Amino acid sequence: MRTEDVSAGLERGELIKGVLRINPKKYKEAFVPSPDGSADIFLDGIAARNRALNGDVVVVKVLPPEQWKVLYQNIFLGTHHFLLIMKHTPPPLDLPASTVVIIFEQKHSRAASGFLKFLPNKNFAMFSPVDHRIPRVNVPLVDCPADFVSRPGDYENVLFICRITHWPADNNFAEGRLAKTLGQAGEIEPETEGIMTEYDVDFSEFSEEVLNCLPQDLPWSIPAHELSRRRDLRKECVFTIDPATARDLDDALSCKQLSDGNFEVGVHIADVSYFVEEGSVLDQIAGKRATSVYLVQKVIPMLPRLLCEELCSLNPLTDRLTFSVIWKLSPEGKILSEWFGRTVICSCIKMSYDHAQSMIEAPDKHFSAEELPPCSTNHRIHEIKEAILNLHNIAKQLRAQRFESGALQLNQLKLSFSLDKESSMPQGCYVYQYQDSNKLVEEFMLLANMAAAHQIYRTYPELAILRRHPPPQSKMVDDLQEFCDQMGLDIDLNSSRGLHRSLNENLGNDEYAAARREVLTHMCSRAMQMASYFCTGALKDENSFHHYALNVPLYTHFTSPIRRYVDVIVHRLLAASLNCGPPLSLSLEEVHKLASHCNDRKTASKRVQELSSELFFAVFVKECGPLDSEAMVMGVLDQSFDVLVLRYGVQKRIYCNSLEGLKAVHFRKVGKRPEMTLVWEQADPSKESTQQVYYPKQLSVC
């Protein structure tokens, strides 16, 4: 289709543009979001995608209704030790079907990790990607290892990187070139490099040209003329609270009680924009990377380590440049006054979340110097503890007010690992515990981000870069509500406030309530749309700026400039708005493109982090298994079902043909609703297999 025809079709509403999502577990199914936020638009089969890959921006044409397909939802069942039954499932989805008419923008890297297969009498080999959403690729034999043709068996378990160069319209197979031999499948480093390459993560070393942008006279100290232009907070009781292993400390806190009973509370953020000059080679590479990528065993930094771990990091007992927001707050958290500006601080102590948590849990305890990290002699431990306790009390008020006003939090379980110091192999894994100390920091970071959003939008209504979160897709919400009603679950999906209350108050208090909440949180997350950065001048309706989960009109990211490029831009906008930095030079189009790019890299970074965690968990199970855990069933297909492993908080698909002792699987549709029964062999062969039917009234455990 010609470009002008596509443009005309989009204007008339005959064509729809959106980001393609391919189902990772059923790769023949793909979706594009509906512009009105209702039901997704469905693409049935590989041909309908017209060679588009996951994440590409595509233009689709909706097919006539007679070509639409009914999809059966893969949501929860109930289970018993001997039997699996699916009842009370949501109604099937009747989705508009479509076909891709043009790939508007290729977002996928066209790179994949996978395996080579030798094809006799061919001058090419077959590359099979690990990700089944990517097509198989014909690669020339000249790209393969020298002895591949004579000893193909030696490479059966070797991972390669392949890049697609061409995909003919009339062929199911693409053409490509081998880029690299990674190593043995299942090993952490080859698998990790494959993941990063596929998601286009730049993990190369920073060039000399980039490093030359950094201060060359080390050790570096703050120039006197710079100190004179800033508010000096070095004598204040300022401290950081971070994970114990963190090395890029980009936020600090301060809190002191005033004579009138109110509090002066400060959030102090590393002034990265001071070191990253706009338009420099360093700025360009930071903008291209857009985010640091956090793997289980290492971090791929957005900025050179001299900046992110030293000059910008708010390390203790060291003078550091910061951008601060300082409020006068009432004990209830009401903002009485607000100040933004460039500052200089000297953090008196590097606290871990556990250190802060111990103070919160034992407010009357006297902490000795040996129980804490090195602390400045200018501030007593008691002073630091009082500041943390006051921040905790204010944070509780702020948090309660947020959720009472309609905020929603869908935190899913996060798996963490303990690693061998030498080999970086996983030695153990556990679900990360989110504590009051985490909530304390979170509340003040949210408050600072909201304050920054209002400041830059007030000054630059056309050029501010903000973060929006649209409401969930109405069709998916309606279906989920019907499902919950059928299951006897008291879940209110009419508003973010109602949903938050339901998940925290209406799921019982038995031993499986937390697991039930986690499963429903996963289900609710599926209906949610992604939060995204945007340029305010590119969206004309101010109502669309709204952040659904936080339930606030304006929000942005200001508090993590060491690891997020958007925050660097926000710092520049703030500095220009306060006349403490260069005037703004960005155009609306530049901010719009920047926001789009940062969205892409944030999505990729999140997926890489998830895949890294999955990889380490697989290695841990292989090395330390088998592991026993109860699991809650989340969904079912005709020959498999998905479970949440309660001990580790991970989702896994269980294939019926891999279950030992399983005698039979019965799957049928009762009307339009599926039902599955698993029949197990008896331990005593003289007895007949028995069948026990369980009709769940609520989510249950196997």
From TrEMBL:
One of its GO terms (cellular component) is P-body. This is DIS3-like exonuclease 2. InterPro entries: Dis3_CSD2, DIS3L2, Dis3l2-like_C, NA-bd_OB-fold, RNase_II/R, RNase_II/R_CS, RNR_Ribonuclease, Rrp44_CSD1. Its EC number is 3.1.13.-. Its cofactor is Mg(2+); Mn(2+). Gene3D superfamilies: 2.40.50.690, 2.40.50.700, Nucleic acid-binding proteins. Residues 230-580 form the RNB domain. PROSITE patterns: RIBONUCLEASE_II (PS01175). The keyword Kinase does not apply. It comes from the Eukaryota. One of its GO terms (biological process) is cell division. Mg(2+) binds at residues 242, 251. The record marks 250 as: Important for catalytic activity. 3'-5'-exoribonuclease that specifically recognizes RNAs polyuridylated at their 3' end and mediates their degradation. Component of an exosome-independent RNA degradation pathway that mediates degradation of both mRNAs and miRNAs that have been polyuridylated by a terminal uridylyltransferase. Essential for correct mitosis, and negatively regulates cell proliferation. GO terms for molecular function: 3'-5'-RNA exonuclease activity; metal ion binding; poly(U) RNA binding. Specifically recognizes and binds polyuridylated RNAs via 3 RNA-binding regions (named U-zone 1, U-zone 2 and U-zone 3) that form an open funnel on one face of the catalytic domain, allowing RNA to navigate a path to the active site.
